[in-house]
Design a protein that fits this description.
There is one protein chain. Helices cover about 40% and strands about 20% of the residues. The chain is an alpha+beta fold. The chain has one domain (about 1-155): Alpha-Beta Plaits (2-Layer Sandwich). Strands 1, 2, 3, 4 and 5 form a 5-stranded antiparallel β-sheet that branches. The chain starts with a strand and ends with a helix.
Length: about 160
Amino acid sequence: MHLAQLNIADTKYALDAHEMKDFVDNLAPINAIAESSQGFIWRLKDEAGDATHIQYFDDPNIIINMSVWDSVDALKSFMFKTHHRDFLRRKKEWFNPIAEASYVMWWIPEGHIPTLDHAVEKLKLLRDKGDSPAAFSFKNPYSADEYIKSKSLAV
């Protein structure tokens, strides 16, 4: 099993605004770090090489990021032990708080690439039901084995 993740953010300014310049200018370097990180498998991107201009939600200020990793630990290592963490610390400069969960993780079969529709369903599931083997956060990271077991119990 591989780990899929979706996160969304509500930008304070348009991506081409001066206030977003440092964030936008660092998308390529941070994405390069992700792609070279141990455990990285795939990330959503458009022709420009990132996902910030992929509009899924009605609100143009909601940007998305989706990726696939070989484990929760691999994703955590990228997020919190690379230059990415410096940008996490600065998120209040660029993003409005989101009252509900703004990210979700779930297990997928190896070789599967998740769709945005499926990812948003997982985010809604987490928001509606809380952490479960089917959709979870870093607070309660369910293992792939727990997910598989929960699926076999549901049959």
